[in-house]
Amino acid sequence: MIELIKNRSDIGAGTRGADMGIDAMEIAAINMGDDYFNRHNHTDVRTHNESIYNKFTSSVAKRIEHVYQQCERVSNAVSSSIKRGNFPIVLSGDHSSALGTIAGIKQAFPKSTLGVIWLDAHADIHSPYTSPSGNVHGMPLAAALQVDNLNNQINQVEEDTKWYWQRMKMLCGDNPKVDSKHLIYLGLRDFEEAEKKLIEELNITHHSVPFVRSMGIEKIVKDCLLQLSACDKIYVSFDVDSMDCDAISFGTGTPVPTGFYVEEIISIFDALMASNKITCIEFAEINPLLDNKGNKMAETAFQVLAHVSRGVEK
Fewest Cβ atoms nearer than 10 Å: which of 129, 172, 223, 272? Predict the structure, then answer.
């Protein structure tokens, strides 16, 4: 049974508004005459969104103490959902709390090997030592992998920030939650030099949109699943900025052109779901305040959500 984990947090982002993304999808469903959100059980995760008013915050990891607490809450919600026998679909504001989702899966399946498919224009593998913005939604994978990337350090990090960063890396266990060979990027096209060097150092698989199109989605997903064949469970994290902002809309915090079309995203999900290894899916970074086409991004995200949910329920 699907359980929706509603995580209306956007404190890890640089632009406010992603906390409204879930409500925007609910409005999209209502306008389409779909009672989706009435048909599925849900859990609301308490947020720390009021922390945006805090005057003092680390410049290299903004509001990290509250992001850490949010990740704890999401982790517990995801783990509890799985232990109840449900299939959690996490609907998040910004992408920082994906660390909590990963930790929750590991908490529920401590002895399982986890694979991660990261559908995103961005690498999200910065640390407080390398981030040019200090926005923690660019750091969840570094925390999950337990990497600081000190070879590419550009920031001096305060002691209290180091402490919370260490807590994030150790969330739900002393060991990395994901091995770099079990992480695959799809749609990556906008990332900094420090991230590029780390991806190369760790030999992380990353497929660009043109490459996916040239090889064909079926072939790419087959290769991804082959690479993750040793994984017992697979988590798919879908940042809507993996889609083409010109074709869809600019309703996300960091829109990037030349991304996937919605039909391609659906085809990727269909091929992945056929593996029967998908344990949890996350949707993130829908920002209706930035949408230049009404509520188009939320409508498109809901189109994907409704389609994927039908596949889960088969």
Answer: 223
Residues in the chain: 314
DSSP 133: S
Beta bridge partners of 260: 243
Determine which helix (DSSP H) or strand (DSSP E) holds 92, and give its type and residue range: strand 87-92
187, 260 Cβ separation under 8 angstroms: yes
Q: Cα torsion at 240, 222, 314, 277 (round to 10°)?
A: -90
Tell me what the mean pLDDT of segment 277-306 comes to: 98
Residue 190 tokens, joined: 């906008």
For 58-72, give the DSSP string.
-SSSTTHHHHHHHHH
Condensed to tens digits (0 to 9), the pLDDT of residues 228-256 reads 999 999 999 999 999 999 999 999 999 99
Higher pLDDT, 133 or 50: 133
Helix ranges (H only) for 109-232 are 140-145, 159-169, 193-202, 209-215, 217-227
Tally of CB atoms within 10 A around 195? 25
Confidence of residue 88 (pLDDT cuts 50, 70, 90): very high
With 90 as the cut, is the pLDDT of residue 58 above it? no
Domain at 2-313, CATH class: alpha beta
Bridge partners for 236 per DSSP? 117, 281
Any idea what DSSP says for residue 40? S
Provide the token pair at 23. Answer: 């409500």
Where do the structural domains in the chain lie, given as residue ranges?
Answer: 2-313
Query: What is the C-alpha to C-alpha distance for residues 225 and 118, in angstroms, rounded to an integer?
Result: 13
pLDDT at 64: 96
Torsion of CA 235, 239, 240, 241, to 10 degrees: -140
The owner of tokens 């680390």 is 58
State mean pLDDT over 48-61.
82
Closest residue by Cα to residue 124 from 58, 206, 2? 206
d(CA 52, CA 214): 43
